[in-house]
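2024-03-11 09:14:02 INFO worker-7 job=invfold-0412 stage=load source=structure_tokens
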């Protein structure tokens, strides 16, 4: 697990950053398409609709990852410990990469302009927050933004490499301990539903955060 925290998560963050230009192009295309089909609506409604589509798409994709990762462990004589560890590790990597890029995409939907390091730091803060007690309590958007901004500022000050390890220490154990996903018969749907719920939580929290930036823009108009 230590090697996973130190190298995999950092590599996922770096790799996701290289996809930012294509993510921006894809989301801006979705915004234009929605506007053409539903012209006249305020931009915040367009942003909400597009972000909803992004969350749904990512949730179904990560559900697929989870189901495939659980499959070897639910087949007698194939689901050995080594196979479980490998499939769990791959599932975690794919899940986190999808959730990171979902946060990036939602920031584009709400026209949030950050430099790459700031966006990465904010995304790390969102991932850490989404599994916290604060997220479960459903705090207001304003309070959430303050919490995430403070964490992101700290991550930038400490450096993203160190920050990625810190966040990994918080979130990876939650995924790695889900061995019950490999229970025969129920493992595949259970794993798929867990990944879907986790991704929807991250996506909804990201929308809750980034939508406050758009509110700021509206206040100045």
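2024-03-11 09:14:09 INFO worker-7 stage=emit residues=221
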């Amino acid at each position: 697990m230590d090697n996973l925290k130190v190298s995999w998560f950092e590599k996922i963050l770096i790799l996701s950053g290289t996809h930012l230009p294509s993510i921006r192009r894809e989301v801006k295309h979705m915004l234009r398409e929605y506007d053409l089909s539903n012209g006249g609506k305020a931009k915040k409604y367009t942003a909400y609709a597009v972000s909803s589509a992004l969350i749904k798409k990512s949730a179904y994709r990560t559900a697929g990852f989870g189901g495939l990762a659980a499959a070897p462990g639910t087949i007698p004589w194939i689901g050995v410990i080594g196979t479980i560890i490998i499939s769990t590790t791959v599932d975690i990597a794919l899940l986190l990469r999808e959730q990171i890029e979902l946060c990036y995409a939602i920031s584009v939907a709400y026209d949030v302009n950050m430099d790459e390091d700031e966006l990465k730091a904010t995304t790390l803060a969102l991932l850490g927050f989404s599994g916290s007690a604060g997220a479960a309590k459903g705090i207001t958007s304003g309070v959430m933004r303050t919490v995430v901004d403070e964490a992101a500022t700290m991550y930038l000050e400490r450096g993203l490499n160190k920050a990625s390890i810190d966040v990994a220490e918080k979130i990876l154990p939650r995924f790695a301990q889900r061995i019950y996903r490999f229970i025969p018969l129920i493992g595949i749907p259970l794993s798929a539903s867990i990944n879907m719920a986790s991704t929807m939580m991250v996506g909804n929290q990201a929308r809750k955060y980034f939508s406050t930036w758009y509110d700021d823009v509206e206040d100045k108009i």
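2024-03-11 09:14:09 INFO worker-7 stage=report msg="The chain has one domain: 2-220."
2024-03-11 09:14:10 INFO worker-7 job finished
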